[in-house]
Write a structure and sequence with these properties.
The chain has 296 residues and is α/β, with parallel strands linked by helices. Helix content is 32%, strand content 15%. Strands 1-2-4-3-5-6-7-8 form an eight-stranded mixed beta sheet, with helices on both faces. The longest helix is centred in the middle third of the chain and has 15 residues.
Length: 296
């Protein structure tokens, strides 16, 4: 059944928070879901609105890999200490991720990040190159990228949360910030994600940080793992992306030695995971199969 089919149940096979567990790491408690098994471990880093649910539609297409999803501190059932008493930001989340892998006794993994999870993936791969065998990611490199216009998005996003919260009406309004109108069930699906992922008291320190302050440009040259960007060909506001005019993509191509791009035509840059899961999974699987653990 196509994702655009109005009869599709987007919640069938969903990994609910109760299906995972909270792991006591050496830093903070972090929620994760681990399918276990003997397959190669693939760490799935979701975005900061859909969270790990962004991988709902590609996970069944990834074969017998051991799939690990998580929520960073501040999101979902992971620790979400008050931002005025605890530190947040990309370096913190990358260190948390290392602590989670330690707790799961995983020395080396493949990493696939979507949306703002890419900030964390880039930092983690640069600081811990020995732990990342292959990296699939997105072009979130710095919040000030003029093509993305993230500060303007935060003006709307932050105002919705301040006025309406992240449940009920607030969740429904936030879900409609993203232009994924070709998927008829997207609104209810994303609204439920928001209700289960976002905490009003940490939204500014998580989503707001990624839209206004995150910057991993200096980390890119430290990424030695083979890297693939998977994205839709449109911008957030529906314009076509010129690869040669995409500042973040150009920067990644210049600074990451082993780099490739898989672009899905006429799709949302990040929610391509929802619109074209089969194509996304096929591109990712081919890349991961070409770079199995232990080959570098």
């Amino acid at each position: 059944m196509s994702p655009a089919d109005p009869g599709l149940d987007p919640f069938a096979g969903r990994t609910e928070p109760v299906d995972g567990r909270v792991v006591e790491t050496a830093r903070v408690p972090l929620w994760c879901h681990d399918t276990g098994g003997d397959g190669e471990p693939l760490l799935l880093l979701g975005g900061f609105t859909a969270g790990h649910f962004g991988f709902d539609f590609v996970r069944p297409l990834l074969g017998d890999r051991r799939l690990i999803t998580w929520e960073p501190r501040g999101l979902g059932r992971s620790a979400h200490p008050a931002p005025d008493t605890a530190e947040y930001g990309v370096p913190v989340w990358a260190d948390d991720l290392a602590a989670l892998l330690d707790a799961l006794a995983l020395d080396r993994v493949q990493v696939w990040a979507m949306g703002f999870g890419s900030y964390i993936a880039h930092r983690f791969a640069a600081v811990h190159p020995e732990r990342v065998n292959a990296l699939i990611t997105y072009t979130d490199v710095w919040a000030g990228d003029p093509l993305k216009g993230y500060p303007a998005i935060w003006e709307v996003y932050g105002a919705i949360v301040r006025n309406f919260g992240t449940t009920g009406f607030g969740a429904r309004v936030l879900a409609n910030v993203f232009d994924v109108s070709d998927v008829p069930w997207f609104g209810p699906w994303e609204a439920r994600n928001i209700e289960q992922v976002l905490h009003p008291e940490t939204v500014e320190a998580t989503v707001g940080h990624c839209l206004l302050h995150a910057d991993v440009r200096d980390d890119l040259a430290g990424i030695v793992a083979p890297t693939l960007v998977v994205q839709g060909s449109r911008t957030w506001d529906g314009r076509d992306v010129d690869p040669d005019g995409d500042p973040s993509l150009v920067l990644m191509r210049e600074r990451i030695a082993d780099f490739a791009v898989a672009s899905m035509p006429d799709a949302h840059p990040a929610y391509v995971f929802v619109q074209e899961p089969a194509a996304v999974a096929a591109a990712a699987t081919a890349f991961l199969d070409a770079h199995p653990l232990g080959t570098r």
